[in-house]
Every structure is written in structure tokens, then in C-alpha cells.
Amino acid sequence: MTRPAYIRYLHVGVLFLLLGGCGLFDRDEADEFSGLTTEEQFYRRALEQLESRNYSGAISTYQALESRFPFGRFAAQAQIEIVYAYFSNGDEEAARAAADRFIRLHPENENIDYAYYMKGLASFNDRSGILSRLIPVDYTRRDPGLAQESFNDFAQLLALYPDSAYAADARARMVYLRNNLAAYEIHVANYYLDRRAYIAALRRGQYVVENFQGTPAVSDGVAIMVESYLRLGLNELADTSMALLKENYPDHISIDDDGDFRVRTEITDPSLLYTVSFGLLGDNRGDPPLAPTQRPGTSGSQQIINSQRNQPSSGRSLLSILTFGLFN
To answer: pLDDT tens digits, residue range 242-265?
Structure first.
């Protein structure tokens, strides 16, 4: 059984459309690079586009140069300059990939240190989103993956090429990144404190003190250790950490005017009734009660815990709350 004639004509028409579309794309590319026949002409066009900040055009020209002259004398230079074009065009991920490719293909190139530097700079500058470019963002509270990656790239640059022209800038950025990484650990420790995960908070504080010496976050790490030990009832360890805090950071915010430790986090565990009534009913402190936040004068912290349990309630009655104070 033969197909109807109109179906055959339809197939032929679709084929012509597809072929015409391919030809259209070829003509567009031909028009874009019309008049460019030599490798040097492609390279000079790309440089002109870079200077005029036409980064997307420069990227296309560099790609065309490499595809037409993969072993030409400008091929390696195009591969390193396209890293800058990607970076300037706001595509940090493509810039990192292009830098990685250049390092892999040309490990002995005289510009290899620039590739390492741009790889670290791309991770350093990656803000991953339009909103982060328009509004202020505290990057110490965000995932430190890119910051750690950038730090490692700059460290590799300094290890391999300590006399590079980019070494001083890389070193300064590493200081900034290290401070941010330490601050991130403090944010995580405070998060654990808010949720009564005192051992986890303690470990984060210790990690900052042990691994980020010289950063502003070290004092906060010691303060977190003090509070964690107090919350756990480990008063002798809290005293030791407090002495360290007073000796090295006497002006820290956790030390009050009397030299006592000031709790930095208001830790509560509100009941469901307290939450749904916006604080009118119930209690904002759940059972069991918290360990003390100051070292007791007597032995151990259990006496303070017991005293908290035995304190009579001095709050308003339910009738007073419901009638807004009209009846007691």
C-alpha cells in the first residue's frame, strides 16, 4: 500500500526546512567572521573585542580561532585569554573550566601562573546568583565550598610560583578567605548552641582555635568553648577556657564589666502552647532545664539546676491573661 502523495510532499518539505535552517546558521557564522582568513586576523579581532568589552563576541572569536587553527601559533594564547573573557562576562564556572584546561594542556607555558591565579579568582568572585550581585550578602554565612576551593587554588599558586607577579594579590585574598572560613565555623557553632547541641558547638569552637590562629574568630571560638562547657556542667574546663579568654582577649563581648562570662546566645525551647499563643500562654523554657551559664560557688552545677526546678512560679494566672488583667 503506497502512502498518499501529500505525506511524501510533507516529508520533502520538512527536509528542505531542516537543510535551510542549517544553511542559515552557517551563513550567520560566515557573516560573523567574514573577511577573516588567517589565524592572526582572528586573534586581532578577539583582542579588539576584549578591549571594547564585547566579551561574548571575544569568546566566540577565540573559539572559532581554536577550531580552525588548533595547532597554530596563537592557539595557546587564545586558550589563556578566553579565561579572562569568560571571567569578565560573568561566567565564573566557564572561567574555572578554561583555566583547568589550559593548565592540563600547557603545564610548561610561561603564563601558567596566570591560569592558576584566574582559577582561584573565579572561585573567589563567584556569587552564584543575580540577587547576590544586587543586594549585600554576608558570605561568611554561606556554603564555604567555593571559598575553600579558591583558598586552595591560591595556595597552589604560591607553592608552585612564589615569585609570580600575582603572588602578592593571591596572598592577600587568602587572608580574607581564611577569616571568612573561620567566621563560618563560628556561625555553625552558634547554630548548634541555639539547638542545645553543646558537644557539636564545642568541637566547632575548638576547631577554630586549633586551625585558624591569627583570625578574628579565634576569640569567638574560645567564648563558644566557655559557654559549651558551662552548658554541659564541666565547670573546671569552663574556668580554664575563661582564663584563656580573659588573658588573650580581655575586651571580648562575652566578658562583662565585672569580669564574668556573658552568655552570647539566648537559648530557649518554647512549648507548642507558648508558640501558638505568641508568648501569652505556656513557657519558653522546656524541661529539662539548662545547665548554668556561670560557674556556681558550690561544687557542681546540679544545685543550681535543682533550685531552678524548685522555684515557685511567679507568672500571671491563666484567668488574668485571658481577661487582659481585668480579673486575677
So the answer is: 999 999 999 998 888 888 888 765
